[in-house]
Amino acid sequence: MSPALSPRWKRLEPDERREQILECAARLFGERPYAEVSTTDIAKEAGVARGLLNHYFGQKRDLYLKVVKRMLLMPGLETSVTMTGTLRERVEKSVEWYLDTVATHGKTYVAVTGMGGIGADPEVERIISEADDVAAVRTLEFLGLKIEVGSDARHRAMIRSYGGLVKATIREWIRGETLSREDAHLLLSEALIVIVRDVFPQLAQQPAPARGEARTPKTGPKR
Amino acid sequence: MSPALSPRWKRLEPDERREQILECAARLFGERPYAEVSTTDIAKEAGVARGLLNHYFGQKRDLYLKVVKRMLLMPGLETSVTMTGTLRERVEKSVEWYLDTVATHGKTYVAVTGMGGIGADPEVERIISEADDVAAVRTLEFLGLKIEVGSDARHRAMIRSYGGLVKATIREWIRGETLSREDAHLLLSEALIVIVRDVFPQLAQQPAPARGEARTPKTGPKR
DNA sequence: TAGCTTGTTGGCGGAGCGTCAACAGCAAGA
DNA sequence: TCTTGCTGTTGACGCTCCGCCAACAAGCTA
């Protein structure tokens, strides 16, 4: 009689459903702080039972991790672009690209990279830190710097620190609107130039001490 | 007989009790993320009933706010110190002072200023942002800069952005241990110098546009 | 010692989250 | 078309955490 009596819910492929939930979660996490987005909200937004979130992502924290990962997985710098020109030209091009990329992601980027996240969760920090590191390596590559491997770790740490400047500046630009894009571009370019040109050479001079103790390993490894 | 049968709990002055609870809370918030510190933990740490936290601080969030405020209320820069010498000397002295101050607070500072906090809570952000602003103004004063009021807001925004670099660098130093104190000092000094010396003059040249629209206000303010 | 002020306790009710057994969409076989 | 089975999906149960509040008791005062 009644032709099939439309089903109460639609059955999707796992990947489809996962993707759909991820999108809804990303949107909500971009609008409100982590703690103020309940799994009920996300489930409702996706038109799905709350338990399904756990089925696909485990804990709420894991779902948030996926959102962060996706947000930080930006299209890579076009390293194929001819990276010629002066240091300043390369730096400004790099900054230009980054500002463009961030502008498209908008508030969600700010929310995820800033304090808008979950809090000092070790896993979240690891993810973001890794992403920062990838960005750092990309930046170094993009600038065409050949660094000897010995001090590479410190250079990367420097660039990660620079990432802090980048994020703070972008926050001032996107949210606070206290800086214009030109201001941000100027600040970030000058800072990056001085780091690469002035700080790195000085770093290279130092004997790259391994920091802390762990010198004189004669007494045994266990301390 | 038994001399007074010691009471089950001691009655304190409100200020004392408040202070005691604040200390315990600060310690725990420094050790674990916000979400993983339950009010029960704090109450237990302070040897007090959980309900008392609400009595003195209202919500858990408000207690955290108090902790953040206390943490950011650092002893001011000794502006009385003779601020003579070259720009580089003043900058290096400023950075020196800041690194010293942070070193004493250690992990709690990192936890509070970094992503170790509550998340994108508007109130927390406002507090931290205000503290950043105070730090920015102090820094400008300390550097002995006389800025015309017109572009003052932008300069402060720049210094707040610089604060992002400071925090990230300190994180690399304190937690990651990927940078030595000398590395941090070098990076922060050079960056601050280039901002004050190269970025600010360029900023001052621009006509300080009020940003965004709100130009040609003839069509009406409501848009 | 009796009384009063108020710092403090402990339990109630609600909200959010993880788990899990049962349900149902839907495709393949008879 | 009916049946069967796989598995995507649901909904409720139990736990933990938090804000609230009436009752309790520490300790000063007369």
From TrEMBL, chains A, B:
Does NAD show up as a keyword for this record? no
The record, for Pfam families, names: TetR_C_46 (PF21943), TetR_N (PF00440)
What InterPro entries does its record include?
A: DesT_TetR_C (IPR054129), Homeodomain-like_sf (IPR009057), HTH-type_TetR-like_transc_reg (IPR050109), HTH_TetR (IPR001647)
Residue ranges: DNA binding: 38-57
What are the record keywords, sorted?
A: DNA-binding, Transcription, Transcription regulation
Molecular functions per Gene Ontology? DNA-binding transcription factor activity; transcription cis-regulatory region binding
Q: Which Gene3D superfamilies match?
A: Tetracycline Repressor, domain 2
Q: Tell me the ranges covered by the HTH tetR-type domain, including all copies.
A: 15-75
Q: What is this protein called?
A: TetR/AcrR family transcriptional regulator
Species source reads: Corallococcus terminator
